[in-house]
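Hi W., the iron/sulfur cluster complex you wanted:
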Amino acid sequence: MSTTTIIERCTGLFEDLDFTAAREWKAAEPGRKVIGFMPVYVPEEIIHAAGMLPLGIVGGGDQLEVIHGDAYYQSYICRIPRSTIELGVSKRLDFVDGMLFPSICDVIRNLSGMWKMLYPKVYVRYFDVPQNYVDDVGGEYYRRELEELRDGLAKLGGREITDEAINASITIYNERRSLVREIYAFRSERPWKAPATEVYLLMRAGLVLPVEEHIEMMHDYLAAAEAEDRPIRDSCRVVVSGSFCEQPPLNLIKSIEMSGCYVVDDDYMLVNRWLLDDVDPTGDPLKNLADAFLHHSADTAAKYCAKREDVGRFLLDSVRKSKAEGVIFAAPSFCDPALLERPMLADRMSEHDIPHISFKYAENSGQMQPIREQAGTFADSIKLWS
Ligand code: SF4
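Structure:
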């Protein structure tokens, strides 16, 4: 199978705002249930162990006209909650049996309340995460959150979710994590063979496909990308940071590439990469998931960082590991978590002489020329003076 065929399939999934693949999965067997979740991270293993399909919802992108969604929110916030409401009221999510709203910001918290009021028959949970990384404080708290999620899903599904089932799911998700790491490493090593748009679409497909199918797709992509020859361009290597929740339009990612940048790391689709290592698939699965969250998870602006001196360390490591020559801070307009942390991250980059630029976007931004010019000038300046 060629990369073109695989990416065509991913593009179809990306553009399908009716979530046909998930609908078909649900219709294939009576009693199946689909659990939607918002960015940034939920433990999909527990949903999978319940026999349900985790379905990542990241707003409506630039294809969805928001008609009703604007009425639910003030104008000076990001777009993802409004387009998600639009998906709901336009009945595109009418097959979803539960929705999880992970703790990332007040906007998502408020959206969870609205969902409860709008859809009283749907299982809705605001999924809180620890802000303290001490095992018997934050770890214990998070473990109870996981227990409540497990019990809630068990009640919804009408069957117990055993430790054995969660451990089996952890094993499958470990395989996915490992493949995702492999693909990111492959792109970092040979970015001309795995363009950022392709890797983005491939990761995005993981939000809507059963994990087993996504694993197969990633295997196929890696094999195809390895085998295909593609021209090497005179592009500079950049890390994109700040895009962990509302997603940029695909054209924005294309524009960055076309302006002469190889994206060698990013924080898109963090749910696939939130846990950095394999999770122990033996023993108490909830404890192991909590331990992984506390001590082996991505330290981005999407996660509370208790020590100021640690802010930016993760990004610095990413720059070093991926041999990046610069950082593009690209965050959604009005995104508190990304934009409040950006000055601190930018300072850290400056302290280490890492060139950086920043801009904001909305998921439906249409005018790419200024971004192309900005990113192109940035790439040229790196090539000339770094
Ligand atoms: S884009 Fe930023 S502000 Fe908006 S919901 Fe996501 S994290 Fe919150």
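The radius of gyration is 20 Å.

W.
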